[in-house]
Amino acid sequence: MGSALHCAQTMQTLLIDGLWCTPDSETAIDVIDPSHDKTFSTIGRGSAADVDRAVAAARRASLGVWRNTSALERGRLLARAASLILEHADELAAIEARDTGKPLRQARAEIDVTVRYFEFYGGAADKVAGHVIPFLQGHQAIAVREPHGVTAHIIPWNYPAVMFGRSIAPALAAGNAAVLKPAEDACLTVLRIAQLLIDAGLPPGVLNIVTGLGSEAGAALSAHPDIDFITFTGSPQAGTLVQQAAALHHTPCVLELGGKSPQIVFDDADFDAALPAIVNAIVQNAGQTCSAGSRVLIARSRYDEWLARLAATFRELKVGVPEGNHACGPLINRRQWQRVAGLVDAAIGEGVERIATSSIASDAPQAGYFYAPTLLGNVPRTHPIAIEEVFGPVLCALPFDDEDDAVALANATSYGLVTGVWTRDGSRQSRVARQVRSGQVFINCYGAGGGVELPFGGVGKSGYGREKGLAALDEMSVIKTVVQRYE
Ligand code: NAD
């Protein structure tokens, strides 16, 4: 598995000023294979002092070498990084699959998405243009886009490589120097890809990484006075702490938090097309996807019929080790398994009906954190399982009466990330898309989180600000207005 594992075994998992180093404290965090519940590596537990060093290195790079690197050259560097990541795609997919437990085939596809981020933002780097503003006679007014300076990036464990690309590629393209705190539960591909960026020619200090705990390195980074912008992806609870810390220094943030995304299936839907998309949207990554379609809202007149078809599909699915390329792998850790099982058991105890469960492959290790995808019915609309994020492969089915009821039900949580709408009626497609409270809407399709090109982010408890697409470059830069009087 190359240098990511080597770095991890030597605990040299901090990247500061272009050098891999051990944290101040020499304390280790175990890296656990969730398919086997076995420690197979360690990472360094970075401290506030390590974060200080990383931020100082980023500041030097931001004021020095990186400021003097043209947008064209930044773009070329990201494009070189994309090629190197692609060359190492199989190696990276193997690391990702072991670290997170996800199916190898899925991990490989995610490396392609990571490559796309570097390609997309590499190509966009020299297209971050400002504009000229009509103003008073004898004055020229322009608005230019500048990098923030030093950006902080806190990312989760569910899609480590993809999250790295999504966060870091636009930041560097826009001209920022970055400090990244990856998730303690899975970050080995992040370390390996960072080395590939160095191999592509990234100057020292432009990307710095501090591995460690959220409550330590993460908290220190979000409270740091010399950070100009924060992008955080994770739970609403940690998002609140990050916002509070950032408020101390008025540091702007983008927050990508959780979701309870609905798939609305009207009575005229093409259910043959909807069925695999609905199942995939909750089973992919064992439901550990912020934009997982975790609620299926079905027109009451078709509810029994379509619920039976969903149940039959759930019963066919298998969960197992990454090499088996099953529908999904284990949950990320024991705590997450206990949380998911606890929420489902509590719901069943309160009258929610278990309509169908998938099976765990016979060769799946007993110790692994495997949780069989579960379809729940008879779910009261306000029950916690119907409105709160589970972050596991658990789909709640609820019937609705008419279009107004469907929209009301879709909007009945405090989240608003992604919505799927399944209907053949074009007018209804437009009406519903406009009325749902959601950062993205997919009509007769569902791409959990959407493509690299599509602006992505939430409303309400799902967060604010946008990543992906060209919108990310707006977030990662700031407008400066320059007014010049001329004779
Ligand atoms: P988490 O919030 O515990 O951790 C996410 C990251 O934040 C990790 O790197 C962690 O170390 C760090 N962190 C934790 N506490 C912190 C603190 N006090 N200060 C600074 N950083 C801190 O979340 P998780 O359990 O790793 O991920 C699951 C959650 O993330 C789910 O709610 C899910 O919906 C959400 N998520 C959202 C998106 C999105 O794009 N909207 C993507 C993936 C995950």
UniProtKB/TrEMBL annotation:
Gene3D superfamilies membership: Aldehyde Dehydrogenase, Chain A, domain 1, Aldehyde Dehydrogenase, Chain A, domain 2
Origin: domain of life: Bacteria
Keywords for this protein: Oxidoreductase
Family indicated by similarity: Belongs to the aldehyde dehydrogenase family.
Record carries keyword Iron: no
Domain Aldehyde dehydrogenase: from-to ranges: 20-482
InterPro entries: Ald_DH/histidinol_DH (IPR016161), Ald_DH_C (IPR016163), Ald_DH_CS_CYS (IPR016160), Ald_DH_CS_GLU (IPR029510), Ald_DH_N (IPR016162), Aldehyde_DH_dom (IPR015590)
Protein name (record): Aldehyde dehydrogenase (NAD+)
Active site: 256
